[in-house]
Amino acid sequence: MNRRRLLTTVAGVGLTGGSAWVLTRSGPSEDQFPMTVETVDARGSAAGQTRLPVAETVTVVDLFATWCTPCTEQLETMAPLVETYGPDVAFVSVTNERLGGTFQRSDLRAWWRSHEGNWTVGLDPESDVMAAIGASGLPHIAVFDRTGHVTFAHSGVADEETLREQIREALDES
Amino acid sequence: MDRRQYLRTMAAGGLFAGASGCLSRGGGNANVTLAEPDREYESSTLPYLAWGQRVPDVSIPAPLEDRSLSPRSLSVPSFITFFYSTCPDVCPALVGTLRNVQTHAANNGYSDAVAFLPITFDPENDDATRLREYARTLHVDVDAGNWHFLRPATPERAKIVVRDEFGVMFSRQTPTQTPDGNQTAANRTSTHDGHAHGHSHGDGHAGVEFVHSSVTMLVNADGYVERAYRTKTPDSEQLIADLDTLR
Known about the structure:
Chain A is of the alpha/beta class and about 170 residues long. Chain A contains five helices and seven strands, in the order H-E-E-E-H-E-H-E-H-E-E-H. Chain A has a seven-stranded mixed sheet. In chain A, a hairpin with a 5-residue loop joins strand 6 and strand 7. Chain A starts with a helix and ends with a helix. Chain B is about 25% helix and about 15% strand. A four-stranded mixed sheet of chain B has the order 4-3-7-8, with helices on one face. At the A-B interface, helix 1, helix 2 and helix 4 of A face helix 1, helix 2, helix 3 and helix 4 of B.
């Protein structure tokens, strides 16, 4: 066993512990909000900016990337909730993929349409939202109540019923 | 916790846990431009190549370009990371971060001043066709002239290059079997645990999973590591800022 391999073996023990530590310490930093993100002209979404969380509104923030297969599942679970709560709750999906090169605004727009997106979609090219929410993976979803407090945060696909319940609670609490 | 602090915390979480190396700050190294990172150990105590160490002069095939490249032979700063294409979450985040830097370079007119070398440790699956498809999924511009997927010729060669030369740990796992004999389904939660990834792709490579560490390196034009980012979620802005000091 050469030196590098020995060290690799030793380090391997530490890796899992290190990650667990990360996960236990990551989480939303409410003091980083509100933030402003650029929004995209896409189905259900207008070009411009949005405040996150939307002022005095229960807000669901979904972090996604177009390469992330489970993220498309998350969109599917959100769609019926947008139908139900559309007027009372703000839904914003945000990607940290930087536009340019082989991924232009039109590509995002087409992807969004093909995955049944029908609500606000925003850009987070410097991963500010991702960092503020404390996401260590994608998808990642957070629910804010009307006062801007994070009442629910979930890493991975959150199922429709859970989200529905969390939205209802956030509406009740506010 | 502010954003930078958060990112530092994220990075720290991936550090060599349990390391009790001595403090070594402010030491000079004529081979690198960036100052030694603030850390409680020396590069020599890390399993992977880190600040001030030179990348190996090994020739690795670049299957999309019909040639081989040595990570030491580039005349511009480069980012190197290690991945396998059927990895469902961590690797896309690593490669996707480099893609975001590549796009920043294109948008800001410095595409010729940087190179990207993602090295697969799954050469059995990651052939040219697969890598091209992967690039499309991640919106990588493989025709920009600065993106070089590298693929060691064989799994054994991958071990030598990635594990022994770069010190980046990876290990192929035996697929997990359920009592009814099926392989476990995809890790649909996609939390970036950065380790074992169970998945099923139906592409002839179903069930293959690797335990691996997540390392991205910034290497200067002379082949010396300026930064080793030991994190599953590299901060593309930090990478851009560090690169900016080198070009």
